[in-house]
Amino acid sequence: MLTFFSRYLSVGVVNTLLHWTVFIVLHSGVGLSQAWSNILAFSVAVTFSFFANALYTFKARATPKRYVLFTLFMGALSFGVGAAADHLMLPAWVTLVLFSGISLVVGFAYSKWIVFKEQT
Fold it and tell me: Which residues, 6 or more positions from 5, have their beta carbon under 8 angstroms from its beta carbon?
């Protein structure tokens, strides 16, 4: 389990850099809300994350069904965190840190026990 989590964490670092960069550009540069900035940044990073985790972390086939399962769940989580941050009027950096932490733990569990269950 620790090996899977270590690999997932490594992919997560790169994924987080992608996510944060796009979020900052969209929110600060373009002026989109935190909810939309977060979901769009997630969309950019999720494809990298899915394929890297399929191949590197879980050594599983990257199928369309798995991609949809992963993307829809994590996308809903991303949008929900952004929407909650908008509602609570939290600073953008809080949204980024909060989503990164939540998605690391919840995303790992969801990936291991649902998306890539057969291969692990």
Answer: 108
